[in-house]
Design a protein that fits this description.
InterPro entries: ATPase_NBD, FGGY_C_2, FGGY_N. This protein has 455 residues and is an alpha/beta fold. It is built from 16 helices and 22 strands. The termini are far apart.
């Protein structure tokens, strides 16, 4: 005899490479996981982009698979996905264009004339709390469509960020959410706490769906379905949610991956010009509160440099995973002037090092020095008591040991939890589907002590 189906929340976590579906039970353990990868397609200019049709079908296929199983009862569904990507749908909900890649080159003349209209690049960047990033400022993608393809733009009923488009597929409702709007989109004027005036001037405001709170849920359109649907979240903001719910004293989260982003939810000072030029920006929590953040392309730099070291010492890159922190190597090189420029290590002649272990330690000294500079930018005077590091570098003992040494007045923890981004999207709607308390052991913390300087 079959048991009673397990109540779960279904979370679609759509990354650039992997598209995943997770089912969490009421204790927030993963009880089912499905992963898909699709071949990219190209847009009309031949630039690589996400295959929107494959993504759409994959959402329905994986849900059907779960329903067929019958061992789970889906109570609610939510979505989290990378930001800076818009889907333009017509009145019938059909996408009108490819899902343009946020790395697509932005037309230079169009950008220059836009900035000229709004007081210049620096003034505009300050008002929208976002560095000038071309297509990564996703609002400017909508602007590009309105100027270069006016006929298509006219057909657009809603311009939806990718997480909200995924939600639309199930709920049939169009929304905008603060985590997607508030993240380097150039759409939001943080000082006015409203859309920037250019959004109204250009008529783009009419294509923006109503803004909803990230913890609201809506009915699904499928007949006979009893589950509720969340409006979707931007992935970086979603990964912050478990920490916001668990810790109330000032902390910084360094989320490490290709980009290492330092989030300080307790720093609400407006961005300065200097901070903007150093790649700081404001994100938004699901409740619409600004979060000051700095970005560092450190994961990418790490990958590139370990390839270079591996080649020079004729070893495989897998070897770097097994290197333990050796303070004698650190002390040998600490007296040298280690640059805090991220790319400084790339110019060092590797023949200076006796072996790959030594070279790797010095690479990590450079990366952490650059990380300390980036994280310090968002620290402010809140007296940050804890620094949490999640993602790849949280398991790297050299990185963590050096970071603890660099911040002797804060406790430094490697934090791990199963699928932080997906978990954030599940926790944010907890009250709507789960009658139990949120477990207090969701985040596993590992404390890293600092090695006292030897004199």
């Amino acid at each position: 005899m079959k048991g009673k189906p397990i109540p779960v929340v279904a979370i679609f976590d759509v990354g650039k490479t992997n598209k995943k579906l997770f089912l969490f039970n009421e204790q927030y353990q993963i009880v089912f996981e499905r992963s898909a990868r699709f071949l990219e397609t190209v847009d009309e200019d031949g630039d690589h982009c996400e295959n929107l049709e494959s993504l759409r079908l994959s959402v329905f296929d994986s849900l059907h698979e779960v329903f067929r199983k019958g061992e789970f009862e889906i109570k609610a569904i939510n979505f989290t996905s990378y930001g800076a990507s818009f889907v333009y749908i017509d009145k019938d909900g059909r996408p009108l264009t490819p899902l343009y890649n946020y790395l697509k080159e932005y037309p230079k003349k169009l950008l220059e004339s836009f900035y000229a209209q709004y007081g210049g690049k620096d003034k505009f960047a300050l008002e929208t709390s976002s560095p000038s990033l071309g297509s990564l400022n996703s609002g400017l993608q909508v602007y590009r469509l309105s100027k270069l393809k006016p006929a298509i733009f006219k057909e657009v009923k809603w311009a939806l960020h990718l997480p909200q488009y995924l939600s639309y597929l199930i709920s049939g409702q169009a929304y905008s959410d603060m985590t997607s709007i508030g993240c380097h989109t150039a759409l939001w004027d943080f000082s006015k706490n409203n859309y920037h005036r250019w959004v109204e001037d250009t008529g783009i405001i009419d294509k923006m769906a109503p803004i909803v709170q990230g913890d609201r849920l809506y009915r699904a359109t499928f007949p006979g379905s009893g589950y509720l649907v969340g409006s979707g979240l931007h992935d970086s903001s979603s990964a912050l949610i478990p920490y916001l719910l668990n810790f109330h004293e000032p902390f910084i989260l360094i989320s490490t991956g290709t980009w290492c982003i330092s989030f300080n939810p307790f720093n609400i000072d407006p961005l300065t010009k200097e901070e903007l030029h150093s790649d700081c920006l404001l994100y938004m929590t699901y409740t619409g509160k600004p979060v000051k953040a700095s970005r560092l392309f450190a994961g990418y730099e790490h990958e590139e440099q370990i390839k270079r070291i591996a080649k020079a010492f004729q070893i495989s890159t897998g070897k770097f995973k097994q290197i333990d922190l050796d303070w004698t190597i650190i002390e040998k090189y600490q007296a040298l002037d280690i640059s805090d420029e991220l790319s400084a290590f790339s110019t060092i002649d590797l023949s200076h090092f006796s072996d790959y272990i030594e070279a790797y330690h010095v690479l990590m000294m450079h990366l952490v020095k650059a990380q300390v500079k980036a994280t310090t930018l968002v620290m402010n005077q809140t007296g940050v008591q804890r620094i949490f590091v999640d993602g790849g570098f949280s398991r790297n003992h050299i990185y963590m040991g050096l970071l603890a040494q660099a911040f002797p007045n804060s406790e430094v923890f490697g934090a791990s939890m199963a699928q932080a981004t997906a978990l954030g999207a599940a926790l944010v709607i907890h009250d709507h589907w789960n009658s139990r308390e949120i477990p207090n052991d969701i985040i596993e913390l590992r404390y890293f002590r600092t090695k006292q300087q030897t004199h």
